[in-house]
Amino acid sequence: MTSTTLQQTVSLIAPMSGIVVPLEQVPDPVFAGKMVGDGIAIDPTSQVLLAPCDGTVSTLHPAHHAVSLTTASGAEVLMHIGLDTVMLKGEGFTPRVSQGEQVKAGQPLIEFDADQVAQQARSLLTMVLITNHDDFSNISLAAGKVVANQDVIIQAGSEAQADEATTQPQSQTTAESELITLPNPVGLHARPSANLVALAKQFSSKVTISCNGKSASARSVVAIMGLNTKQGDQVQLSATGADAAHAIEAISQAIKEGLGEDCQASPAAPAETLPEEQSLLAIKHDDDNCLLGVSASPGSAIGVVTQLQEQTFDYPETAADSDAEIRALSAAIDAVQQDLTELQQHMTQQGQADKAEIFQAHQELLADPELIEQGETFIHRGKSAAFAFNQAIKAQIGVLKQLDNPMLAGRVSDLDDIRNRMLRKLLGLADEAMALPDHAIIIARDLTPSMTANLDADKVVGFATTEGGSSSHSAILARGMGIPAVAGIDNRAQQLANGSKVILDGDAGHLRINVTDDEISAIEQRQAKQAEQDKQDLAAAHDHATTTDGHQLEVVANIAKLADAEKSVELGGEGVGLLRSEFLFLDRATAPSEDEQAEQYGAIVKALKGRPIIIRTLDVGGDKPLDYMPMPAEENPFLGERGIRIGLNRPSILRTQVRAILRAAQGSDSTVRIMFPMIATLEELSAAKQVVKEEAEQLGVSNYEVGIMVEVPSTAVMAEQFAQEADFFSIGTNDLTQYTLAMDRGHPKLAAQVDGLNPAVLKLIEMTVQGAHKAGKWVGVCGGLASDPQAVPLLIGLGVDELSVSVPALPAIKGQIRELSLSQCQALAQQALSAGTATAVRQLSPGR
Amino acid sequence: MISQLGGRDNIVTVMACATNRLRFTLQQKEQLAIQQLTELACVNAVMEPQSKVVHLLLNEDASPWASELNQQLSN
């Protein structure tokens, strides 16, 4: 430093009361090593951070634990309350100023709850630092006890930066990094920023870091923190100077490695950073001819492999005339928007609202100003429009892929689709034409919505994609087209030769390859046999379901609306075993009135022409709330206020519904049965039954019964006691299985193990039947097991009296029962009860 | 130290937090002898962030202190 420099001073008063701790003793290497700046730490005994001098609030960290001021003399003063307090995300901190605000010495900046923060953070030590301390000399620091707004803690003299001006200009080069995705869980806060600055200072080049449209000098901790970065943000470095390229390389590498932060172990890091592991329970397949995936749309199909190749594009990276490229980009965007509008209209006209919606979404994605702005930025840097757009959209795809959010990850294929459209437009290529063979089974990485819109639906019999899941576009479209689809299929599928014969099993989620003609004819024979069987069952649909040894079962239907009731009668249904009353309550702004409900139930009872009906009272929960009945978010909705618990806690809803059901029974030939869902304790049943009793007496109705769903293990175990109160039982096997195994049946990783044929569930069914029969009550099954041909013999063998099945399955289940003998079913059920696993049970009972 | 906090009966809980802080919750704050607490060699400063909550700022890790105090209080 030379003596010609201009002296300025800065003097800071204590921003809080407490004990001064020398920076070197702060248990954090970044502060102790003075990497952020020079100053002191205070162990506070007050709970407000005051401005230590006049100045402007240059940054206020979003987590409100750090603030910096710029003084008139150019000093940058950073105050950082506590260590690792950024993790508290603002909890316990209340800012009293905002960024850009002018403040006077002594003015409150941040209030904090010292007790709360102390219990959650590693330390309350508050650092008061001059971050551009290189520009200051003779820094003197206080020690001991200080009192807020009274004692001077730091004094320093400032020198104008003479050294830089005297440096001889060397050969200037510029360099720029790629976009780097920040791995740091809370972005570039004090610690990683300090490491970045320390590294940047090792180079003579001027390095700038930019993010979210803002840029900052890589030598200023405060400026970097002011970028307000967060995890997954993309930053770019640019450098000017003799060692620009080296600087970019070294700093890029350091950012990718987390700037000294352990980004892997952080709880905030998305789970995606962990490598996928194969579960120990995964079903192992040693059949090389069977490629595994997950079911995305049910059904099975025989067809020929049709590989959908992704279009590749060839374009120059740079362009000379930026203005022309900007115009080309803008024209292409307009043209693609036009195409998308037309496609949307076309789909709407064809009645394909779901596809129309997708193209509507594409228009919005393409209109994203950030995307366009990013593209233009690249063009201004001398890139071609195609390269620029590709880069810009790639950045967005990168961000989406980072997020641990399956909904947004599904958007990747939308962006891919837009990218391809734009590039074709920019490069003047025609839309991909697809000539498909008959019985095509499409194999692709993922199907973009445009691909599926262009597919000839008459020729495609199935999809298999290596990416995507059961919620991807291809899955939704396949289900809409009624064809099977498998997602996440083994990558080997992409190596299959076009035209080779394969069998796609959308139920099991696999693709059989190298199939022989014999196998195909065997399957075709089986399908033909199945069709013949269906015909016979349908013809006999109105016959009783009586076993070969003369035991008759009641086979009834699960329905959700009037049309189902009519259809069930047509298909031989002997009544309704479950009317899900939710249809009356969902998708509306107000609760249905008693009159409206009575009318609807009455119409369904009438359609059954004297056949019995079980009407289940409203069965909703916190996971599927009704618009007009807001329910607080629950930590465990499946263990929360759902089923009868809602009716008991809001008796007006239950009472209204009970009255409406009883009114539907008035003057009808049918026995109308009221069934309460999710009963777990006798108190619940008694309370709900009391409501029915009161209303029935008032209305003078007697052709009714009161029963319960058996969905909770407690009810199955105590069936004998429940049988004293309930007229009948109906087992909801789906929920009973989920509550018995403590596995969410919608959980993607557990669903495969949630099998109602688990011997534990069968045992609970047996207990229910025994308890009910002792009191002379009957038991039905209305869950998924009743329609499962492998389960039917076991349920009969366990003594179940009634099966309530999905309407289309009525003829087949009745047909199956006629082929069974009760005594054989009983023997089989005993074997199943002593089996070890659901798989073993399924082997015992292979179905029809 | 216990007596200056109003005796064993006045101390509801003791814990260590923020590395060097001994945090006490008290039955009532009136019995607190702040001046005498500050004079203890191990205590740098005393803070009352809330009524009935006291932090003693130590010049070392507070965890051993907390476990020792908890032991004494439970005996």
Automatic annotation (TrEMBL), chain B:
Output the InterPro entries linked to this UniProt entry: Glu_permease_IIB, PTrfase_EIIB_Cys, PTS_IIB_1
What are the catalytic residues? C17
Gene3D superfamilies for the chain: Glucose permease domain IIB
Q: GO biological process: any one? A: phosphoenolpyruvate-dependent sugar phosphotransferase system
Task: Cite the entry's keywords alphabetically.
Answer: Kinase, Phosphotransferase system, Sugar transport, Transferase, Transport
Q: Which organism is it from?
A: Neiella litorisoli
Membrane in keyword set: no
Any one Gene Ontology molecular-function term assigned to this protein's record? kinase activity
Indicate what this protein is called per its UniProt record.
Answer: PTS transporter subunit EIIB
Task: List, for all copies, the residue spans of the domain called PTS EIIB type-1.
Answer: 1-75
Coiled coil located at which positions? none
Q: Which domain of life is it from?
A: Bacteria
Q: Which SUPFAM superfamilies match?
A: Glucose permease domain IIB
Q: Which PROSITE patterns match?
A: PTS_EIIB_TYPE_1 (PS51098)
